[in-house]
Amino acid sequence: MTIEQTPPASYWYSDSSEDERGQRVMEAMRLYRAAEMAMRRRTQDSMSMGENELLVLRYLTRASGRREGVTPVELARYLGVSTASTTALLDRLEKTGHLERRRHPTDRRKVLVQPTAHTEEEMRDTLGSMHGRMMQATRGMTEAEAEAVMGFLHRMRCAVDSVCDQPGAGCCAALAAPSRLRAS
Description:
The protein has helices at about 15-45, 50-65, 70-80, 85-95, 115-140, 145-160, 170-184, and strands at about 100-105, 110-115. The chain has a two-stranded antiparallel ribbon. It is elongated and about 75 Å long. It is built from seven helices and two strands, in the order ααααββααα. α3 crosses α4 and α6 (about 145-160) packs across α7. It folds into two domains: about 50-140, Winged helix-like DNA-binding domain superfamily/Winged helix DNA-binding domain (Arc Repressor Mutant, subunit A), CATH 1.10.10; about 140-184. By secondary structure, it is mainly alpha-helical.
């Protein structure tokens, strides 16, 4: 006697065709994230740094490109760590020649942090070819495709990073937007 067993329903999704499509998208995202995390580990190893050190250097190089000053307090907020932890991190990066601290030009109480030329060169050497390949992957996209990808990524960021306590506001509105579009 053969007993036919039905596979249990997925704990994540229903059996609808829309959820099946969503599952494929989520799997593609998981594969991308795994590749990105592996790249980050390789970068950390090649530069002998931890994740927070690389985050600080990326933040500083972007700000430097916009000619904006960055304070240690701003970096602490960005990283979500204490100012004491940020000071220790900045001390390590300064000791290795990756950043400089300078007095604020108009507020003597503040210190500005900036990457050194060595840092920007090292980051270009380490990440330049990968960034080039990433930009190549975006070439040829239409404006509509770019808007769709950016909208999707914004909704995903909201889904994983925010708690919707006010339906219709902020990220909650972004999460509701696709269903409103289908209803129209």
